[in-house]
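User: My collaborator and I are trying to settle a disagreement about how two of our proteins should look. Neither of us wants to argue from intuition anymore, so we agreed to look at predicted structures for both before our next call. Could you fold the first one, then the second, and keep them clearly separated?

Assistant: That sounds like a sensible way to settle it. I'll keep them separate. The first protein:
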Amino acid sequence: MTVDPTGDGTRDRGTRDDGIQGERHGTAPVPLSVLDLVTVGAGRTATDALRTSVEIAKLAEGRGYHRYWVAEHHSMPGVASSSPAVILAHLAAHTGRIRLGSGGVMLPNHAPLVIAEQFGTLEAMAPGRVDLGLGRAPGTDGATAAALRRAERLNEGADDFPQQLAELTRFLDDDFPDGHPYGRIHAVPGPVQATSPGGVQSTHRPPIWLLGSSGFSARLAGVLGLPFAFAHHFSAQNTIPALDLYRESFKPSAVLDAPYALIGVSALATDDEKEARRQVRAAALNMVRLRTGRPGLVPTPEEAEAYEFSPMEREFMTTWNSNVIHGGVDEVRTGLDDLAKRTGADELMITGNAHSGDVRLRSYELIADAYGLPTA
């Protein structure tokens, strides 16, 4: 059966093993995964950033990380992930086992049919290992969102998220009811190919995850019985309330019998604790500039050390970095263990933000070593 977000009953399609629930390896408290923002450092190009993404994805696959997601952002010079589906296709060509997905696609920015087609294509490229994570935020500023959506109202689209989700699900399952205006429209690749003369279609379809940084998507994911991903890395104060709301709202579905929640975690491990502090300071400066309308490339640690933070900026940096688990490998492992225990998260999705791609790559390797994750 498949979940029915339109509320008119479920439709039997058989059970699916969508790879939602990850496998814990080594001594890790829960399954570990990777969130990649495809950050671009000063003096580097988007090509450099994408090459780093490939290297991290290959390392993650070899070391037993469960999934690798990329996020949708726009009009940010320091983030080269404006087109998740394109990046995921590239990563699919360089990996063979790890789950790949969006963390997430900002659905109000797109027509649901377009997303169904993109992720149907990805599923055909990497059968059985594609996740479709969806958010309702713009992933950018209001003006850019309006340009993306061709809308006069800057917030147009977000309020219609449940309806957009229902439409997208119908396209993925190819099951609009008789008489629906879209009943003769099919997302291809997709289930319609199995009903065509001589057609054969994979039984897999990308599982839908709902992403959020507040209670809206938490409740919706619970009511629909979908897996939920919370953005702890930039909304830590809301993590436990949102997870509690998700679990309290959860209704068993054909997708899940019980709640399954992962949280995005900002964590950076280095061989030298001082280097971790330098890299995290640079990442914080990047966030200061973004939040004050001055987005740019991720500054070097040297630039961040020389930068004179105003009192307000310093306060922001202190607050921001208090939610970044960073330091030597023992310190990071303890921080991740404590966070998993405190939140009860079923999976930790680690994002390591730093100016240097080599530092990011090394961080995921050190974390894998700390927990005795398998080696390729």
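The second protein, kept apart from the first:
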Amino acid sequence: MSELVTGEAVALELRPARLPSRALAVVIDLIVAIAAYTVVTVALLVATASLDDAARTAVSIAAFLLVLVGAPIAVETLSHGRSLGKLACGLRVVRDDGGPIRFRHALVRGAVGVVEILLTFGVVACIASLVSERGRRLGDVFAGTLVVRERVPQTRTGFLPPPPPWLAGRFGQLDLSAVPDALWLAVRQYLSRMHQLDPQVGSDMAQRLAADLSARTGTPVPPGIPPAAYLAAVLQERQAREARRAFAHGPQAAGAQATGPRGVGPLTSGPQSAGPQTAESQAAGPFAAPLGPSGTPAPDSHTPSSPAPSTPPAAAPTPPPTESSESRPHTGFAPPA
């Protein structure tokens, strides 16, 4: 991985192309260019058969410059750094800041490439690529460009490696309420891509994330635990808490759906919600008068009240025996208390 800094101070991690892939791309481009140059040369020899030797030499030089120098420059400019060979090998030419190349970059690379690739049969380009830290040849150095790998092998980025078994449940007492969602996302992305990173870059990133996470939780990282294992264990603890919270609210949510509007009671019918009923209310049907607290019918506000008796009131009559819930018919109506 090579870290490039753009003009907006954004660090880009790119994979520079090495000598084998670049050599294969150059060979493909040269095969296509030589084949096109051969066809153009034969056509020009047939077309210029009546000219003298000087004219033929001038036409041959012009065809050489046009096909072997001008055509690669035009292709790299129009395709933004992807020639036929680079496209086949998954490579691309970019600027030092990671942006697409322009005509001047392609012109410098093509002009220097005539010397270090065509005239020296690629010896100078191979030596420069081996000496350079990022595999750049002289044309890339003078033009300020870099050949990077545009197509990388696909890996499973959604798989999160589990923590070691001896760390299971060890961080159950951590306070994770102060950890922001952005830090959790960064930890998850690192764990899912840590096998793709350079070992040194991945180790530094794990240490930074572990330090940030321990600062948010208020508990330092226990000694002897690798940062990556610490991150995986804490992330698993958070997922376990979220799962317990979700399953703990499940039965309550199910009970809330079974209750009636405004939480009055369960929406059930039958003897469970009807309560005890007397034989008179069963015989009277759903329009029976409500009963008082002593079991007698409650006075109706629309009927005239009788005068109070002068003699002391007799004892309240005992209510008739109620029927059991098994013998009562299921009417589905509960008289008001």
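Some points you might bring to the call about the second protein. Confidence is low (pLDDT under 50) at residues 1-11, 253-310. The two ends are 79 Å apart (CA to CA).
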